Queue: 4 jobs
Job 1
Amino acid sequence: MSEQIPKPTGEKEPFEVRFKRAWENYWYLYKWQTWIAIVVVVCVALFVGEKLTQVNPDVYITYIGSSYIDETLSEKINQDFADVITDTNGDGGKIIQINTVLFNGSEDLLNMATLQKADIDLMSGRSVLYLIDSFAYETFIQRGAFREIETAQGEFSYIDLTSNRLLNSEEFHFDNVYLCQRQQSFEDKDDEETRAKYENAAAMVEKILQYQ
């Protein structure tokens, strides 16, 4: 007597079982393609996020000293000086960014590393104006890092901002802070964007003197 084939009962496997089997088959066949796709998506998301949040300043000011630059001062400088600088990068905004290089004049390894960082900043030409405290001034003036500052009131090796109302208020206070200007190379004079930086710096210096 021939063996009868059992009739289907009509019952379906639970969804969880079918999904698990389908996922195992997919992962077996496309595991590496999936990982590559995930990595690509993450990289694209990070790149787009960086571009959307990237700040492209028109003026860089570098502070070299032993104090911390408070966000309040950065905000105040951006508010008070937006009317005297130009949009050098053509992005439609006027942004002034303050970079901080902490340095207290000692000769330990940390300060030697900081000194190198400051040297790189000076050589890069990114910043034209520098806020320097007394420790840093003695170090960098010997290196010939700064030029005479030309103003309507005359030329100055530096401008003492110790009593300047811009850097001294209820929110913040700096002792023995000097404004210096980076030396301008021959290459700088031939570059249109760099010339615009120095023009912005000159305009800011004149307004800074109004706070004296």
Job 2
Amino acid sequence: MSDKKYAFTARQSEHKADGGRTTVTYCETILECKECWDKTCYTVPESGIYHFSLSFVRDQQQSADDGKFGSADDTSIDIFVNDKPKATAYAGESSGRQTGTVSVTLELKKCDVVTTKDWNVKAAFRRLRLCYFTGFKI
């Protein structure tokens, strides 16, 4: 059993997307052990059991910088492993702001790639604020 510590936490203050599924790029890495995180994906350094959590705020308000309103429709961010969805954080339809959160524990193999991708039921313009993504080996 390895005693190496593998962990990361990343933050995105504002993610904007239009159309289909979009990979979330995180602007800030808060914690990173062992350099396996590159702001869009986590490459598994060692086979084992890993825990991931994700939370976000979907914002329907008008943006001051581009004048666009974010979608009030159902919006989600999925955690993918090797391009296959494994867990979904979901913010339901409503005006204003809604939150989504999910946690998942997975058995992963060395070199598996973990990413997050957003999605909107109508593929409409969406604005996500304060998105956090964390992962670590148990």
Job 3
Amino acid sequence: MFSDLNTVYVDLFLQIIVIILLAFAVTQASKDPYGKHCKFIIIAVTVQLLSVIAFMLPSMYSLSGFNMSSSFNSIMYLHHLSGLAVIIFTIYIKLSFSEKIPSVVDPLKMMKITLLLWILTFLGGFYLYLVLWEGIILI
């Protein structure tokens, strides 16, 4: 259905959608924290998960036969771990606010950490994209 290049552009489009949703969520955090803010975050996480399952996992598995540099592998694994942490933190925050689990850590503090981690994960993914698809090596 998609060529390799088309899947990259579809995934980039989804990442732009996620960034836009996060920007809207941040603007709504102080105005309507439990309404629109939460809805934007839930949609962003859902789009991100779909992107990971549909595009990123197959891409990662297709790289298994290639000998990549140690710095690239380090950034890729850091990107994967930080992305997984973002998803886990987001689920924790949602469950804490809905009182389905007790709050061990203040969810409001976790939100700020999660946003920062999400931005760093996005930048790491953008770097991986530049290396893999554009041949640009920055590190």
Job 4
Amino acid sequence: MSRTLRGSIVQLRLEGKSIVNYLAVILSLLVVFLTGCAHEKPREAANFELKNFRFDVEEKEYNVTYRGKGLLLAQSPAMQDGSYFVFLKARDKHTSQVASELVAVILTKGEGELAFTIFYGKSQGPVAPPEFTWEVVGYVPLLPATIFSN
């Protein structure tokens, strides 16, 4: 082992290699290892059940409004704690048309209320109650936070 002085920097050399290089490699590996361990595990696919979905009908002179409500239940045991935003897409069974907006449901302790409103113009002819199939676009966990007000 030899010691070389260059200005105010002292470099220790082991068999021609700088110990600083070894430390840099070790620190790099440590950072990669620690950040890899800090990432969340991949989430399992979540399953949901929609129960008691029904429409209330409101007819007006020029349109018909259907207000749908139902109970969305998480089937995954991991989703029984905490809160989640679940995003759904509605597809009309008769026309295969997809609703233009996503339906967002807040799940708390595994359940949440799905509320959905759709309008049909009477100028299109008789309006039958819609029937939908639902597709889960995705979900995200909600983290607790504190709010302060004056």
